[in-house]
Amino acid sequence: MKKITSYCRITDQQVILNGKKLEISFSGDPGSARLTEIYRYLDAKYPKFHKMDNLSKAGFLASEIVLRSLDYDSETPDGSTSVVFANRSASLDDDKRFQETIDPDNYYPSPAVFVYTLPNIVTGEVAIRNKILGETSFFILKDFDAEKIHIFIEWAFSSPGINRVLCGWTEYLDDLCDVLVMMVEKESPEGMDFNTLNINQLY
């Protein structure tokens, strides 16, 4: 039976791992500054983090917390894990920033921001960091929808050789962070049942 073996919830107020709040001292600054504080708390030592957009940072951090809790081997290529994320705003947070760099009087749109004007970049960042070789997918939904997320994850499991799916909701817009990342395993004696009721409860 499929089980949710670990989960992380990140909002503007707190970071929760498997029901327990992580004791992170936030300075009070909103948005990206809080993501940096979580990164420092984790002591992740991944310099590329600082070049990511906020959506990728949020998804990266939640994934990092989940994978660490499972003692995941991020150094060995892994073709048995897929990454499936969804959100409401796609890459709108970056689209707005990119639009601001298009100045008619000084026309030079920022390529550094443009790189992140696709929402699926976050799944790529997570996969690269952890050497995950399974398929990655990103879906846009009107709102958080546990039933659709459940369907997307079941689709991921239908691919041959996939035993685990790192998945969830990664929403970031205008300094507001709303993230739930879970690890769902095909065969696990531990964890909570993988169903829409439990997904909704975790969110």
Question: Could you please describe the fold and organization of this structure?
Answer:
- The chain is α+β, with helices and mostly antiparallel strands.
- It has a single domain, classed as Peroxisomal Thiolase, Chain A, domain 1 (3-Layer(aba) Sandwich).
- The chain has 7 helices and 10 strands.
- Strands 1, 2, 3, 4, 7, 8, 9 and 10 form an 8-stranded mixed sheet that branches. Strands 5-6 form a two-stranded antiparallel sheet.
- Helix 2 packs parallel to helix 5 (121-130).
- The longest helix is centred in the first third of the chain and has 16 residues, at 54-69.
- The two termini are 21 Å apart.
Question: What sequence of helices (H) and strands (E) makes up the elements?
Answer: EEEHHEHEEHHEHEEEH
Number of strands: 10
CATH architecture: 3-Layer(aba) Sandwich
Largest sheet: 8 strands, mixed
Query: What's the CATH H-level homologous superfamily?
Result: Thiolase/Chalcone synthase
- Indicate the radius of gyration in whole angstroms: 17 Å
State the shape. Answer: globular
* Model regions low in confidence, pLDDT < 50 over at least 5 residues: none
DSSP helix fraction: 25-40%
Separation, N- and C-terminal Cα atoms: 21 Å
Strand content: 25-35%
The CATH C-level class name? Alpha Beta
